[in-house]
Amino acid sequence: MTQMFFNLFRPKQSTLKDEVLSGLTVALALVPEAVAFSLIAQVSPLIGLYTAFFIGLITAMLGGRPGMISGATGAIAVVVVALVVSHGVEYLFAAVILMGIIQILVGVLKLGKLIRLVPHPVMYGFVNGLAVIIFTSQFEQFKIQTAPGVKEWISGPPLYIMLGLVILTMIIIKFLPKVTKVIPSALAAILVISGIVIFGGVDTKTVGDMASISGGLPEFHLPMVPLNWDTLMVVLPYSAIMAAVGLIESLLTLTLVDEITETRGNGNKECIAQGMANVTTGFFGGMGGCAMIGQSLINVNAGGRNRISGIVAACGLLTFILFFSSYIEMIPMAALVGLMFMVAIGTFEWASLKIFKKVPFTDVLVMIVVTLVTIFLHNLALAVLVGVIISALVFAWENSKMIRARKTIDKNGVKHYEIYGPLFFASALTFGEKFDPTNDPDEIIIDFAESRIVDHSGIDAVHKVTERYNKVGKTVYIRHLSTSSKTLLEKAEKIINVNYADDDPSYKIVMD
Hints:
This protein has 20 helices and 9 strands. By secondary structure, it is an alpha/beta fold.
C-alpha cells in the first residue's frame, strides 16, 4: 500500500518544484473562472469555488490523465442555469449527483473508448471554437456595472491602464521562458502585475471587484428535494446533458493533453473519476464540472505533468478561500485576462488554417461547422455530435461509391459476380443494379471475398437479388462470406433464403 501511494504521487517527467509552482499558477487562474461560471449559473460564487476544489482534487488523485485540470466550467454552467431559475439550487445539487452516477456507469461500461470515433477535423473545430470562446469571454472584464443588470464598456484612462497591464502580462508570459525557467512565466506575470498595481497604487479592476471569495470549509449537504418520480423526471434531462457535455469536454481535453505530452491517458478511468467527483460535489453543494482545457494547458505549459500539480491547484484554491482571500482579491483582473488571452492563442490550432487546400473539402467543412456551433451555441456536446454525424454521412457516401462487381463466366456456364466494397445501406441500391436476372444463365455465384455485408440494408439487398433470380427460375449461390456477414444472414434466415457454395471456406475477423 505504501508503494502504491508513493508511485501515485512520485513525479515523472518534471520536478517537484515545477509541479508545485504550476499548481499554484492554476489555482490563481481558477478563482476568476469559478466565480464567473457561478454567476452564469446564478448561484453563489462560493458554490463555484467549492466545486472547483472537489472536482479538481478528486480527478487529480483518481483520474486517467495526470496533469489535466478539472473544475467548474462554463459548459456545465450554461446547462444548469435553466434548472436553477425554474426549480432552485437544491434541484441543481440533486442533478449533479445523478450526473456523476451516469458518468460512473459510462466508465464502468468502458464507453470512454467511443472518443476514438471523433474524427480529427472535429477535434480541430472543437479546439478552435473553444479557443475563441476563451478569448471572447475575457471581454466581460472590460465592462463595469453601472446599474443593476446594466454593464458598460470602460473607457478613457481605466481602459488604457487595463490594456497596458494585459499587454505587459502577455509579454512576460511570452518572453520570460527565453530568459529563465526557474518560475513559470504565467505565475511570474501575475506576481509582477499584482506588485505594480498594489505597490504603485494603480486603480484598476481586481478579483475582489467580481465577488468575495472568503469562506469556510465546505459542509456536507443532502439536497432538500422530494425523493420521488417527479423529482427524477425534473433532474434527469439536465443530468444526462451535463454528463454528456462533461465527458465529451473531459475526453477531448484528455486527448489534447495526450498529444502535447506524448503520453496516453485512460479514458474510462477518467469517466469514473469525473463521476465520483461530481457525486461528491453534489453532496457538498456544488454545481458540477469537468475538465478545463484552458487551465489544463496552463498547467502543462508551466511544467505540470503529474497528479501533484492538480492536487496543489485544488488545495491551493481551498487555502485561498480559507486564509488568503483578502490577498487574492487584490490581484488585478488584467493579469488573469492576459493569461487567458495567451491560453486562447496557444489553444487555437493555427496549423489547421494551413491545411485548407491540402485536405478534402468535407474535412474543412466539418472543422468550420464544429467551430461555429461551439462559438455561437456554447454547446460543446452538440458541436461534437454534429461534427461526428457529418463525418459519418460523408464516410458512408464515399463508401457507397466503392461497391462494384467484376463479372465472369466459367467453363461450366456459371456466371460469377465478384463484389468489391462494403454492402450497407448507402451502397444497397447500387449493388442491386449490378445484376441482370433476365439475361444471366441458370446459375450464378456472388463472391464476397473482397466485400462484406454490414447491416440489415445489406441483407435486404441480397434478399432482393436472390428473389429476382428465383422468380425467373434461376439459382443464386453465395461464396466467401466473412463470418460476421454469414452470422447476419443466418439471423435473418426467416426473411431470406441463401444457398452457400459447397467449397465456401470459413472466415474469421481478427480483433485487436
